[in-house]
Amino acid sequence: MITGTTAGIGAAFAGRLAADGHNLVLVARDEKRLREQAADLHDRHGVEADVLVADLSEDDGIAAVEARLKDRTHPVDLLVNNAGFGNRARYLEVPIADELRMLKLHCEAVLRLTSAGAGTMRDRGRGGVINVASVAAFFPRGTYGASKAWVVQFTQGAAKDLARSGVRLMALCPGFVRTEFHARAGIKDTSVPSWMWLDPDRLVTAALKDFARGKSLSIPDPRYKAMSSLAKLAPRSALSSISSKVGRPPAKG
């Protein structure tokens, strides 16, 4: 099962897993795009791709996906929690309703879906969850960075708790990837240095290798691995100054 599957990292996961012969459950808000994606994956790879239309920033959407994950007659062996969004504006320039929607999607939905999926996986003695976070988790960057830091901490803690259960959990921390995610957030290519952009297919290949090795944290690029290591050593004030500028407009006032 892949959430946020119709574009970007989610689509790259779907394409790679379908190419490897896995049947899929595709989750997103846009039914038309989901059905087109499912048909394309079936035609190209001969796999079954079920469609589940759900908005994971709403309780009803989360509950629908929870119910599918708890279905023991058609079990899910791998859950990729990828759905997410970002706001380009700075703190207090973003409506509080949008901030709360982000926390609902990045934190509550990830918690509830991971719990639903991992619970049935533990009962079967096998399975895995990949929670897509971000390298923003290691930098002070408002609600987005804070929510992704929560994803990393939650996933690594849960991975340790389930270490002997046969269920593997991994937090995936990509950097800037050329997807619809940044376009929707209003982040222009020109506002981010060219060397910081990653290819989604290569990212997914590296992430799945890390997952197969049993890692609980994947930063699938040497550049971003170096940046995250430096983030642990650099003064927080310096990190905040840098991260607040990349991919954002100038501060108002």
Written description of the protein model:
Pfam families: adh_short (PF00106). It comes from Streptomyces javensis. This is SDR family oxidoreductase. Keywords: Oxidoreductase. This protein is α/β, with parallel strands linked by helices. The chain contains nine helices and nine strands. It has a four-stranded parallel beta sheet. Strands 1-2-3 form a three-stranded parallel beta sheet, sandwiched between helices. Helix 6 (180-184) links the parallel strand 7 and strand 8. The longest helix is centred in the middle third of the chain and has 29 residues, at 96-124. It starts with a strand and ends in a 10-residue tail after the last helix. The mean pLDDT is 88.
Features:
253 residues; alpha/beta; four-stranded parallel sheet; 9 strands; 13% strand
- Give the proportion of residues in helices: 40-55%
Total helical segments = 9
Strand content: 5-15%
Overall morphology: globular
What are the secondary-structure elements, in order, as H or E?
EHEHEHEHEHEEHEHEHH
- The residue-averaged pLDDT reads 88
| End-to-end Cα distance | 44 Å
**Strand order within the widest beta sheet:** 4-5-6-9
Rg (CA only): 18 Å
Computed structural class: alpha/beta
Q: What is the tally of beta strands? A: 9
Largest sheet: 4 strands, parallel
List segments where confidence is low: pLDDT < 50 over at least 5 consecutive residues: none
How are the elements arranged and paired?
Elements: E1 2-3, H1 8-19, E2 24-28, H2 31-45, E3 49-53, H3 59-69, E4 78-81, H4 96-124, E5 127-132, H5 142-161, E6 167-172, E7 176-177, H6 180-184, E8 197-198, H7 200-212, E9 217-218, H8 222-233, H9 236-243
Parallel strand pairs: 1-2, 2-3, 4-5, 5-6, 6-9, 7-8
Helix pairs in contact: 1-2, 1-7, 3-4, 4-5
